[in-house]
Write a structure and sequence with these properties.
This is FAD-dependent oxidoreductase. This protein is α/β, with parallel strands linked by helices and 355 residues long. The chain has helices at 11-20, 46-51, 115-118, 125-136, 151-163, 184-196, 237-240, 281-299, 337-354, and strands at residues 2-7, 29-35, 40-41, 60-61, 69-73, 76-80, 85-88, 94-95, 98-101, 105-107, 143-147, 168-172, 200-202, 207-211, 214-217, 220-223, 226-229, 233-235, 259-260, 263-268, 315-320, 324-329, 332-336. The protein folds into 2 domains: 2-36 and 74-106 and 234-299, FAD/NAD(P)-binding domain (3-Layer(bba) Sandwich); 110-231, FAD/NAD(P)-binding domain (3-Layer(bba) Sandwich), CATH 3.50.50.60.
Length: 355
């Protein structure tokens, strides 16, 4: 029996399972999924879990069940491309015939001293739970600093403002305006929303150091009761340690068919893959669709295509609490309640379809 091993049950891994199970997996092939959690986690909603506006159960979706799907729970320590094995902490290594690496990302601290020690995170469900405990145990009037005003930072700040309006939230951004990946119109809309809801924004920030309850902006110490880091990501350390070619962001360079150059048995999906578009759940899912197509052709002994269709994303949505939102749908800016309803609908459909 051949073994397709999926590392990580994130958005890419989950989409591969959906497309192969129950009827598209060859009879001579089994799947081994390796993940730290016994369920698929909705990472795009970790900000709400950390803020306390949704429960832990709300960000989980069960993995599918199938007689040839074996799910292992554990911590991956190393991938040996030569031995075609995945090594786990306190478990026997797992051999693979085909491998899909979808291990996601970690916080990137940009060499800021103390940032990895004294800040909270929303990069994993475990860290989001810990962040929730700290933020929701703060006394009224406490001050919270959020470093990074991209999508994650903005959604966390707005959700925390709704969950704990008694807190003083300060959002730090190194750019001239927040949400640099979006249009200026959307940026101004979100900035106006924050002003109305008494969330302070510090533009042109330069965080030089973090100490216990102290954030240094341009070397000026600012006291906070809690500090959350949302200022960048990098591939999982296991992927960073792989002896393969990577781009400037540390993501793995792939062939057009999404496998390692010279090794068509190893694919990389999601945040660890070097792609023309910025990492996102939607991108991981679309990439996974193409990986499944390649796997099917490979298993059937058919020639692989020399090129793949360009991945086109439908848009990006962000929330501002439970009633307002912003985003792009087919390059059209949308704000207000309609944007929030669209995002809620997308999330509901995803959970219903997968669960």
């Amino acid at each position: 029996m051949k073994n397709l091993v999926l590392l990580g049950g994130g958005y890419g891994g989950m989409r591969i399972l959906q497309r192969l199970l129950p009827n598209q997996l060859p009879e001579d092939t089994a799947i081994t999924l390796i993940d730290r959690s016994p369920y698929h986690c909705l990472k795009t909603e970790y900000y709400a879990l950390a803020a306390g506006t949704v429960s832990d159960q709300d960000v989980r979706v069960s993995f599918p069940e199938h007689e040839r799907l074996n799910i292992l729970f554990g911590e991956i320590t190393e991938i040996s491309l030569e031995q075609k094995k995945v090594f786990l902490k306190d478990r026997e290594p797992v051999s693979y015939d085909d491998l899909v690496i979808g291990l996601g990302c970690e916080d990137k601290f940009h060499n800021v001293p103390g940032a990895d020690v004294y800040t909270l995170s929303i990069q994993t469900i475990e860290k989001s739970r810990a962040t929730y405990q700290v933020l929701n145990n703060l006394a009224p009037g406490s001050k919270v600093g959020i470093v990074g005003a991209g999508l994650s930072g903005v959604e966390l700040a707005s959700e925390l403002n709704e969950s704990r309006p008694d807190l003083n939230v300060v959002l730090f951004d190194r750019g001239e305006h927040i949400l640099s990946a979006f249009s200026e119109r959307l940026s101004k809309y979100v900035q106006k929303w924050f002003t109305k809801h008494n969330v302070e924004i510090v533009n042109k920030a330069n965080i030089t150091k973090v100490e216990d309850k102290l954030l240094f902006n341009h070397d000026e110490p600012l006291p906070f009761d809690a500090i959350v880091w949302t200022a960048g990501i990098q591939p999982n350390k296991v992927v960073r340690d792989l002896p393969v070619e990577k781009d400037k962001q540390g993501r793995v360079i792939l062939t057009p068919q999404h496998f390692l150059p010279g090794n068509e048995d190893v694919f990389v999906v999601g945040d660890c893959a070097s792609l023309p578009l910025a990492p996102s759940a939607q991108l991981a899912e679309e990439q996974a669709e193409q990986i499944v197509d390649i796997l099917k052709k490979k298993w059937a002994g058919k020639p692989l295509p020399e090129t793949m269709p360009s991945i086109k994303l439908k848009g990006t949505m962000g929330s501002l609490g439970s009633k307002h939102g912003f985003g792009l749908v087919n390059d059209t800016p949308i704000t207000g309640r309609v944007a929030r309803l669209i995002k809620s609908g997308i999330l509901w459909m995803y959970k219903y379809h997968n669960g």
